[in-house]
From TrEMBL:
UniProt GO MF annotations: ligase activity
Domain of life, source organism: Bacteria
GO cellular component, one term: membrane
Pfam families cross-referenced by the UniProt entry: Wzy_C (PF04932)
Keyword Amino-acid biosynthesis: no
Transmembrane segments: 38-56, 62-81, 93-112, 118-137, 149-168, 223-241, 253-282, 294-314, 384-405, 425-443
Localization annotation: Membrane
Name under which the protein is recorded: O-antigen ligase family protein
Annotated organism of origin: Pseudoclavibacter chungangensis
Keyword hit for Disulfide bond: no
Segments for region (Disordered): 1-24, 502-526
Residue span(s) of domain O-antigen ligase-related: 253-396
Length: 526
């Protein structure tokens, strides 16, 4: 199109761009050519700390971990204030805001008010870090930060397990347990040593060469397996986006797969299969028109109902095939015990606590197995039901479902920048959906969705999928009739290069700054 050539009038609500300029910019941003900066480093360290919290606690005690959390929070506040994102309260996902608010006000009826205040503070800090990342760090940089954090945990875990297996065959204890009298007090065993305490007290049991599950720097096989799965997702997306050299990506994929296998976590194995199936559905749905997508949804929903029914009916036989107990390694007993408490306070719950506080009732002896006091319900929704009642659990379910739906739309719908509709779906578009699927699967057998790294990513993807303003392919937009679901504008100025403008034809009924109104101006900073 020449300068004097008239611009064709697009459909109302569609933005047009100068010939090829925005496409080249969008492709460059999506393919990972953004420089590494302090915001990326902050996001990587925050995600690392969220998923490797036990590493910091075992190394530096809870007090040292608390100092690191405060530093991350202060850094988030500084980054948020300096970037000054044009954010409105109404832009935040309603289920997220309502769930956090409900947890906070539960202090009014909590059976343990100091612990509720402490748990609410931890929840709010983590949510604010997720918000800061969502509105100040681009999607491409978040992908890089997630990959760096997950690769760091996987790599350090394998090195750690190798050192323990070679030089400490009896395993190693968290460093704070080496303090005089600490091990006796925590284990309840007079004169306790590393030989006499249950294996659950050990940071690592040195199983790398003993045909048993490894624990890594996070001290837990299930947590390390989830990290390995997220590493696989992040590195695979990076390979597709051109952020990693081919040999580097393949090497890290192999390392993460080996780590996942060494963890021997059935939850992670199931999540891996479901994530792979979810990616297959994305690839199937992308070229389909809206009518065929709804048919696909019906088929997939039917298959899911049949599959769940089959597992419920033949759970004993299925678990026997994989050499696992039908109550999922004692989780059935824990769910039953927690449910009995939840039924007595089923509407509003006992009060939010986040981490179970082992010094207050009923958490001090709610579930003790082999001398280990379990401090979670091993199901995020049952846990939420006990703490904040059916209202809080319902809000948590709404948060998960809404994030899954929004991230699904982002994964299958082509970005709409111009009337030619010539933009491809970027490789990074699937990240939010695949990670959210992984979090959803793990939330059925672990309560980690409520705390630390899982809660951080849940908040980030919930907010990001609502806003979608951090880079060009995530501009606020309205979906055309042949796409799935409405994706509404939020009235924000898009982050664009200062030299790039998006002329929008006038529409008589459009308000200024809305699709069909005047063209939004590129921000001067941020």
């Amino acid at each position: 199109m020449t300068q004097n050539e008239p611009m064709s009038r697009p459909e109302p609500g569609r933005r047009t761009t100068p010939s090829g300029v925005a496409r080249r910019w969008g492709d460059r941003m999506e393919e990972g050519h953004e420089p590494f900066d302090l915001a990326t480093a902050f996001a990587a360290f925050a995600i690392f700390t969220g998923f490797a919290g036990d590493f910091w606690r075992n190394l530096l005690t809870w007090w040292g971990f608390g100092v690191i959390v405060v530093l991350v929070f202060v850094a988030a506040v500084i980054l948020f204030v300096r970037r000054r994102p044009p954010l409105r309260f109404s832009h935040l996902p309603a289920p997220l805001v309502l769930f956090v608010a409900w947890c906070t006000i539960s202090v009014a009826w909590s059976a343990y008010r100091p612990e509720t205040l402490l748990g609410s503070a931890a929840q709010l800090i983590t949510a604010f870090v997720g918000l800061t990342i969502a509105v100040t760090v681009s999607k491409v940089r978040v992908l890089r930060a997630l990959s760096i954090a997950m690769r760091a945990i996987v790599g350090l875990s394998l090195v750690f397990e190798l050192i323990v297996a070679l030089f400490f065959p009896k395993g190693v204890l968290p460093l704070y347990m080496l303090l005089p009298g600490a091990l006796d007090s925590l284990s309840g065993i007079p004169g306790a040593t590393i030989d006499t305490v249950p294996g659950g007290f050990k940071w690592s049991q040195g199983h790398l060469f003993s045909n048993a599950a490894i624990q890594g720097i996070v001290g837990n096989r299930n947590l390390l397996a989830m990290v390995a799965l997220l590493c696989i997702i992040a590195v695979a997306v990076q390979l597709g986006a051109g952020q990693l050299k081919r040999w580097q990506g393949i090497a890290w994929l192999a390392t993460a797969v080996v780590t996942l296998a060494l963890c021997r976590s059935m939850t992670a194995f199931a999540a891996f299969g479901i994530v792979a199936f979810a990616y297959l559905l994305v690839r199937i749905a992308r070229p389909l028109p809206n009518s065929l997508r709804w048919i696909m949804y019906g088929i997939v929903g039917t298959l899911m109902v049949i599959g769940v029914s089959f597992v419920v009916l033949f759970n004993n036989e299925l678990f026997a095939l994989i050499n696992r107990s039908s109550d999922m390694s004692g989780r059935g007993d824990i769910w039953w015990a927690v449910s009995q408490i939840a039924r007595d306070h089923w509407v509003v719950g006992l009060g939010w606590v986040s981490y179970w506080a082992p010094w207050v009732e009923p958490f001090s002896d709610l579930q003790v197995v082999d001398g280990i006091t379990y401090l979670q319900a091993h199901n995020a929704y049952i846990d939420a039901w006990m703490q904040v009642g059916v209202i809080g659990a319902g809000l948590l379910v709404a948060l998960m479902l809404s994030t899954l739906v929004r991230s699904w739309w982002l994964a299958i719908d082509r970005p709409q920048y111009g009337a030619d509709d010539g933009f491809r779906i970027p490789p990074t578009a699937v990240l939010a959906f695949l990670v959210t699927v992984a979090l959803a699967v793990q939330s059925l057998t672990e309560s980690r969705l409520l705390i630390e790294g899982n809660w951080l990513l849940m908040c980030y993807f919930a907010i990001y999928s609502k806003l979608r303003i951090q880079d060009l392919p995530a501009l606020p937009r309205r979906t055309l009739p042949d796409h799935t679901g409405p994706i509404m504008t939020i009235g924000q100025r898009p982050l664009l290069p200062a030299t790039l403008e998006l002329p929008v034809p006038e529409h008589p009924n459009a308000a200024p700054g809305k699709p069909g109104g005047r063209a939004p101006q590129a921000p001067s900073g941020g």
